[in-house]
Amino acid sequence: MLGNALIAYAGFVALCLAMEKHFVDLLGRKPRPAQLRLLRSAGWLLLVLSLVFSVQLRGWAHGLVEWTAVLMAGVTLWVFGLPYQSRLLLGLAAASVVLGPLLAVLAG
Amino acid sequence: MKEGFRQAMAWLHTWTGLIFGWLLFAIFLTGTLSYFKEEITHWSQPEVRRHALDPAHSLEVAQRYLQDNAGHSGTWLIRMPNAREAALSVGYRDPDGGPRGFASKTLDTRTGQPVEARDSRGGEFFYRFHFQLQMPHPFGRWLSTFCAFIMLLGLVTGIITHKKFFKEFFTFRPGKGQRSWLDGHNAIGVLVLPFHLMISYSSLVLFMYMVMPAGIMASYGNDTGKYFNDLFGRNDAPKAAHVAAPLVPLPSLYAKVQGLQPGARIGRIQVENAGDSNARVTFTQSAADHVAYRRSANWTFDGASGALLSQGKPESGVMMTAFSFAGLHMGNFAGPWLRWLYFFFGLAGTAVIGTGLVMWLGKRQLKHAGSERLPGELRLVEVLNIASMSGLLLAVAGFFWANRLIPVGVEGRADWEVNAFFIAWGLSLVHAVLRSGRRAWGEQLALGALAFALLPLLNGLTTGQGLNHSLQAGDWAMAGFDLTALGTGLFLAWLAGKMLRSPKPMARRASRAAKKPSTETAGAS
Fold it and tell me: In terms of residue numbers, what domain contains B287?
């Protein structure tokens, strides 16, 4: 469950950075259009990956519920933590891209 | 036309939110506590000891106790202990024992002896309150169901009113007065929206038999019991034949259930006509086993011969849909991690309502920022806001303090705990009337901080099962309760600190906002 949560969290962070306003605010430079496209696809991909792992590990019934739960938890942590600890949360997102799939695979 | 529609929805959102917000806040907070119903009950009755689960042994001691003490009774009910609930509960119909002709006892799962636990309703009180509101049946259920409908309406109208649903999906800007409240209200509403929608819609599904009874009444008249028997594949037990026949050992029936459905956890067992040749034993699977709340997962045996008579029918798609909503609402299936998430999403729902109430008032207060006194109607809203939010927190704390302080032997002890809840709530209303808005908030939150933060200490002093004991013994329900109380205390202390500090920067922001009314907020006023 933690692995899926981290993947979902990283997915939302990518989707957030794919919005120009947030990209500029958080990374302090203007994004190229290709970067935004890449972030957007990566974000959606991570969310789908988290769904696949959830269902794979826990079956459809529990998997869908847990996926929705970690999705909501991840994005809430991001949005409400951002004004206070943006660097920490960005770091966590970067770590999650590696750590999330690793944990999910180990759990399976 | 479109703008007119949005304006109308904003109006509906604002006013239904205000009128029902106070009650909804209480329903959401107590409902959220109900996700830890068993854990709260465990804390409220520390005399009930937890032992390793052994269903066959539990059934054996329950059967022995009931045969010795309730051989004359036509109906027995056994509730099995589980990972979250330490108690083995037995009950039996007894015209002169206990309320409503039903006597119940809590047994120690190892010895089978009744546990003399303090009389308390524990988590059951908050659970019942969140849909019955301490009102006579059926009015509380009607009112809370109507509130659920209002919540659903509030969500839909809120989405329509919220112009920048996607554009401000990730936006929260703290420290900007009204702007931040609106950001927070929107973000916590949007980000946890699947939970909010599920919880309010499923409340309506749970009570659909009450809200939309026409279909049932057309086919079954007033015999709704028969409808549920048909639905869940149950049969009423036959009358006692008055031919004595010993009841088969319940553990042997448990083994048969395990053969039919390996790994099934059993929630409750009902025995009709024990000791008679027409005895019937029904095993119902624990709700923790499925996401959907499958009330038809049951097995009925002949209690004299031990033969399997019937199994719950497989559910139709429509039933599974309804059961899934019920199961999602109650979250019985959730393990510890998911249960904590449920708890936090419940708090998020509570926060949506709370921030909405604060904003309604904050926005209108701006117009009177310079004057000494608020107009009467705004002052009324302010008092009700304070009493319904910080006052409710004091009421919850009052319940737990009463649980530890009222002596064990007192007559009607459980009722006095409930009285303490309402007395604390009532006093907080009086306090809110007497003190000015900001002071009342600050003082009540500070008192709440103290009351919650000291609960672990009180627990340790009165029961000897404080954190030093529970953490060592691995009693996570007890330790989790104490730590949550401590965390709540710290959070309230932080809030109280914000309220009690000088309100000047707030007023400055307020006047600036009043000069330049923001276009985004205009829609929702």
Answer: 49-116+234-312
Of B172, B184, B195, the CB nearest to A72: B195
Tens-digit pLDDT profile for residues B187-243: 999 999 999 999 999 999 999 988 888 888 888 888 888 888 887 777 778 888 999
Is residue B498 in a domain?
yes
A60 touches chain B (CB under 8 A): no
Is residue B388 domain-shared with residue B488, that is, in the same domain?
yes
Return the residue in B35, B168, B172, B324 with the most chain A beta carbons within 10 A, the one to mutate for interface testing: B172
Residue A22 forms contact with B (CB below 8 Å): yes
User: Is the same domain home to B301 and B271?
Assistant: yes
Q: Compute the distance between CA of residue B2 and CA of residue B4 in angstroms, rounded to an integer.
A: 5
Q: Residue B523 contacts by C-beta under 8 Å, 6 or more apart in sequence? A: B6, B7, B10, B161, B163
Q: Choose the weakest-confidence range: A36-40, B86-90, B251-255, B365-369.
A: B365-369
Q: Chain A residue with minimal CA distance to B342?
A: A69
Are the beta carbons of A65 and B344 separated by less than 8 Å? no
Contact A72 B292 (CB under 8 A): no
Contacts of A69 in chain B (CB under 8 A): 338, 341-342, 345
Residue B468 one-letter amino acid: N
Residue B318 near residue B333 (C-beta atoms within 8 A): no
Shared domain check, B305 and B388: no
The Cα B400–Cα B19 span in angstroms is 29
Which amino acid appears at position B319 of this protein?
M
Q: Do residue B170 and residue A65 have CB atoms under 8 angstroms apart?
A: no
- CA atoms in the 13 A half-sphere facing the CB of B125: 21
**Across the strands, what pairs with B114?**
B107
How many helices, marked H, and strands, marked E, lie in chain B?
21, 7
Whether the CB-CB separation of B351 and B196 falls below 8 Å is answered with no
Tell me whether strands B266-272 and B88-93 are parallel, antiparallel or unpaired.
Answer: unpaired
> Chain B contact for A83, CB < 8 A?
yes
**Pairwise CA distance, residues B461 & B473, whole Å:** 17
Range of the domain at A58: 2-107
- Average of per-residue pLDDT values in chain B: 91
Q: Could you report the per-residue pLDDT of B47-58, keeping only the tens digit for each? A: 998 889 999 999
- The separation between CA B407 and the C-alpha centre of its own chain, rounded to angstroms, equals 26
pTM: 0.93
pLDDT in tens, A20-76: 999 999 999 999 999 999 999 999 999 999 999 999 999 999 999 999 999 999 999
